[in-house]
Amino acid sequence: MEFLSGVTKKEALELSELLAPERIGSEVKVNGFVHSIRDMGEVCFVVLRKREGLLQCVFEENVSKLSVKKLKESQTVELFGVLEEDARAPHGVELRVKGGEILTATYAPLPLPIGKWKLNTSLEAKLDNRSVSLRNVRERAKFRIQEGLVRGFREYLTGQQFTEIHTPKIGARGAEGGANIFKLDYFHHPAVLAQSPQFYKQMMVGVFDRVFETGPVFRAEKHNTKRHLNEYTSLDFEMGYIDSYLDIMEMETGFLQYTMKLLQKEYANELHILNVTLPDTDKIPMVRFDKAKELVSEKYSRRIRNPFDLEPEEENLIGRYFKEEYGADFVFVTHYPSKKRPFYAMDDPVDPRFTLSFDLLFGGLEITTGGQRIHDYQMLREKIAARGMTEEGMDMYLDTFKYGMPKHGGLGIGLERLTMKLVGEENVRETTLFPRDLSRLEP
Q: pTM for the complete prediction?
């Protein structure tokens, strides 16, 4: 009888292990993808791509038992040799190869020059060959940073006594209303893909007080812009026993501060690869919706065309205004008009035309929508009726409030948009692993 007792330590070392000072001068074993080959005659430089970065390997005539002539880009190999210091090599070390073996072959030339620093190809070409284009060091770095954002969200909120939940993505009706819903047949019953986890996370406030989720949401919007997707990842949280909607904005500010420090500490290599300067999160200004429109109208001589919503150009100008006037990378825009917010948004008791809600703009782009919710059962029903909506399909949701709920609120953050602005891309598809838009269902 054999038993497993845990993970077996592998002989092949990872990059962080190779960088330990005591490894210099010793014989080591490594594995990875052949990222690039530079044949200099008697000496050949082969760069391996590993999960933590690049490793330079030196093949010398009459020293290396594995012939470099057999190697091709994108093969996987296992090599052994002596590790030496070299300031010119990536990370300051290189492997003087004694021998090794080819682990897997390749059967076609690469469709993209992934060994180059920049791919210098179209976005469509990158997306059509996504599993290959992501092997490029710079492309891969974007999604390591994206991982850091999700990690920061999870770590910070867990530290703030939030409970992580996982809600259904198939439901009987949408949480946001409107026509932007993907409909499907669910065993001969009409169903929809979730526009957000809103109903469920509010229900769970009555269970755990504070909850968060990271998951996909779906919007059947016929947009074909650089900022919209039909499926994206939403970072959601909902918290009870708040004093006001300000508590929610403060919690997001704390998340951003924590996460920027995490990126600086744990993802410095990726930040360097992409030449990213992290935004300032020490203090984030906030401004009322109507005041923000007035400010940019006055400064940039732009007529206010829509008093009930922010147009993309206005968002951009608000971001520009607060950068120029206060050096701020982020700005909270509060008190959106009630007619442009969902029925569950709490109206401002001072002026019910507006809500106790907000958007967070980053570099002139909305990345977050949130606010205080209606927690009173009767008030919620009255607002549904006032909007000419039906309660059909919302029985379970409304019952939550019938049995009592604390004062609460929450938000949703668009992960791909946040990543896009952070790494300086212009198109959200650049920071989406496998985008879904009007024309793309594959890969």
A: 0.94
Separation of alpha carbons 205 and 50, rounded Å: 43
Q: Give yes or no for a contact between 240 and 251, defined as CB atoms under 8 angstroms apart.
A: no
pLDDT for residue 176: 65
Per-residue pLDDT tens over the stretch 310-348: 999 999 999 999 999 999 999 999 999 999 999 999 999
In order, the DSSP letters of 315-369 are HHHHHHHHHHHH--SEEEEE--BGGGS-TTBPBPSS-TTBBSEEEEEETTEEEEE
State pLDDT tens for residues 186-217: 999 999 999 999 999 999 999 999 999 999 99
Label residue 123 left, alpha or beta by phi (over 0 means left) and psi (-120 to 50 means alpha).
alpha
Would you tell me the crossing angle of helices 198-208 and 395-402 to the nearest 10 degrees? 30
Query: Which pLDDT does position 241 carry in this prediction?
Result: 98
Residue 301, φ and ψ in degrees, nearest 5: 50, 50
Q: How far is 398 from 379, CA to CA, in rounded Å?
A: 11
